[in-house]
Amino acid sequence: MKLYDGLRSLISNLGNPLKDKAAATTYSYTRLTDNQLIAAYATSWAARKLINTPAGDMLRKWRTWQGEDVTKIVAEEERLRVKSKLLEAKIKSRLFGGAGIFIGTDQDLTQPIDVERIKPRGIKYLTVLDRRELVAGEIEIDPLSEYYNRPKYYAVAGSKNQTQIHPSHFAILMGEPNMGVINDGWGLSVLQHCLDAVKNADGAAANIANMMFEANVDVIGIPDLTSNLANGGAEFEQQLLARFALFAQGKGVAGVGILDKEEEYTRNSINFATLPDLLEKFIVLAGAADGIPVSRFLGTSAAGLNATGEGDMEVYFDKVQTMQSDLEGEIYTLDTALLRSAGVDPAMNYVWNPLEQANAAEVATTNKTTTESLININNLGVYSGEEMRAIATRALGQFGVEEIVAETQAGLEI
After folding, report:
1. What does each C-alpha distance from 12 to 15, 268, 355 come to in angstroms?
2. Is the pTM of this model over 0.70?
3. Contact (CB, 8 A) for 139 and 152
4. Mean pLDDT computed over 174-197
5. CB of 386 within 8 A of CB of 377?
């Protein structure tokens, strides 16, 4: 039995580092430089898609504030361009491994920000700084600190005033978890684990494009070509080149090729039948490297019998919703300061708007269910008219009822 096992392993080369290709497979970490990240983002459509698509999807539908004075907080968001600043910061954090949004107030930057001291319009501006512009200071090693394993302070690179800014003055958006590979206060770029898949997709597309120039190759067999070249030398070579230049010209202009009877003419054509499927596989892998389905990555329908892509999109939307939940924690201080700056109730909260656009049939079904639920609640008789009015206003918020009610009340007060 031992002899049989040994021969089987010998024949199959299992475990033999000289023969078994998998035995030599190892992983090593080489951090991408900033120039590599910028070049990939600037020149590769696939790399740009990987960075921009999830960031855009998580903020595209934005959020809806709930409570009174919604118009004030919305106006403050528009004044400070919160949505566009968050999108810029999220894109930079995914590309470079981290970014921060500086909350511009008149408070001492070396001390923790006191959001309760922020008055209406107390936030002067918001500034986005990526990892290259925001230098992380000493890492906090005290596990009892809320900033454990995070920088104790930040400094703005290139600034004449190298103030050690307390991290509470920033909304820090981290990149991918570094898992202890490095500890400079930042995460990793998304491209760190996706760039090989992006290169493969770009390389496959480039190679197929180059093959288009060689889709048809003319081959002409000439009797005694080798001996004639040896005996005739340069003169025969020039005559040969002149002759076939005239042949190519005649074939291109008049569609007529003239050859000697003894010469053989064949045309070799490349078969492109399987190349589109092969290219698509590479592109699918590039999107899958960061969990983006092909229907979203390419903007095309899923291929295959009875394939709709709905299941893939549901998984993708779950990923985006998780990113939104993570973002809530990263911008908690910013949102708290924003409420104070808007002069509204600091206890106000918000919900993210649905990621997927419902069709007419789904909207009608939802509206019918909501209306029937409100009628059933009202028939219970446990709520007063004012309470039911508040419940209905909140439930019908998607139709802008809250804003209509607020405008109506404002008109009555006037």
Report:
1. 9, 39, 51
2. yes
3. yes
4. 86
5. no
